[in-house]
Amino acid sequence: MNIPNIPAHAPSPGTAPTLADPDTPFAVVDVQRTLRNIERLSARADRLGVALRPHVKTAKSLDVARLLQDGTPCPVTVSTLAEAETFAEGGYTDITYAVGIAPHKLPRVLALLRRGVTLRVLLDSTEQAASVADASRRAGLPLPAQIEIDCDGHRGGLRPDAPALTEIGRILHDAGCLDGVLTHAGESYFAHTAEDRRLAARNERDTAVAAAERLRAAGLPVATVSVGSTPTAHAAEDLTGVTELRAGNYVFFDLVMAGIGVCHLQDLALSVVVTVIGHRPEHGWIITDGGWMAMSRDRGTAVQAQDQGYGLVTDLAGDLLPGLVMTAASQEHGTLTARDGAHLPDLPVGTRLRILPNHACATAAQHRGYHVIDGTRSTDTAPAVQAFWERVTGW
């Protein structure tokens, strides 16, 4: 495939940069692993007979999104209006803003609608519904809204039997704004067995479909029944009654997903390159220049059977260094230690390493973009950097 946007920081004219060249720490994406992850879920959605609406909140990158459907803009989910605006500029016209809407953000939503972008908002209260309905009437423009459904108590939303569900639906419908229902099985990130994930996926579907059926029984049209999380998207066996599937983390995956069995370590497409800057042999420490500002504070594997600290360690080529873990972090320092009786390797000052993150979304957010490599092209100790892909920042 052609990878656009070759970075301008090659060390000398005519010399392609490698992972040994940029200043550390920096984020790396393996494009072939990303493509493989994308194709895996796309094929699954096809088998399940539902539309896939990828969540771009993980990568927050138009360049990564271009891998989703051969460069053709597809329906997407966003977590910020900054993402919505950037993706609209990139030609994406079918967008769901899957965070509860605050009334003061509605002018930005309406601005995108006036540009021909279908931008759906999410809500779970009569107050939000009234604000959306009022803004829509004043603008003379339908403002599509979805009602958030709580399928597992993880975050916001209404239970399908909540008295307010039909009231909210009526407020939206009367203003021409009711689009459907949306749910997210956030607790599936703690589903540690395949059976637990299948049950979570079934519950996610059943809850969303029950909410949609209740609205329809009240005479309210429901066009969209949207479900999804990365664990449930890969575990669902039957999505009857569902119209679309959402997931985001799957493009990169991470140690949390590997820890619950959704993927393998070889599927992780995001890493952070750091440099060894010191040693504390009396403590068994190797110190790097990659602290929590490079990796984030996320410790998602701490509740799993195998705590991976702040991340697992590989060499620049991506080969795991057995037993070496990033176990501590301050702002700009990372501490690597050996565990399970492993030998602490001899890594001189200046050695570059890659850290596999706990949570791809949080780690990616620490960086302005990705240095892109193709892990299948060579076995070089320092893979060539083929492009730099920028990320969306802000809200």
- Return the domain count: 2
Main sheet overview: 8 strands, parallel
Return residue spans where pLDDT drops below 50 for at least 5 consecutive residues.
4-14
> What's the pLDDT, averaged over the residues?
95
What is the number of helical segments per DSSP (H or I, 4+ residues)? 11
What structural class do the secondary elements suggest?
alpha/beta
Strand content: 15-25%
Task: Output the CATH topology of the largest domain.
Answer: TIM Barrel
Which overall shape is indicated by the principal axes computed on the Cα atoms? Answer: elongated
CATH superfamily of the largest domain: Alanine racemase
What fraction, in percent, of the residue positions are helical?
25-40%
What is the CATH architecture descriptor of the largest domain? Alpha-Beta Barrel
- Give a count of the beta strands, DSSP E runs of length 2 or more: 17
Strand order across the biggest sheet? 2-9-8-7-6-5-4-3
Report the CATH C-level class of the largest domain: Alpha Beta
Distance between the termini: 32 Å
Sequence of secondary-structure elements: EHEHEHEHEHEHEHEHEHEEHEEEEHEE
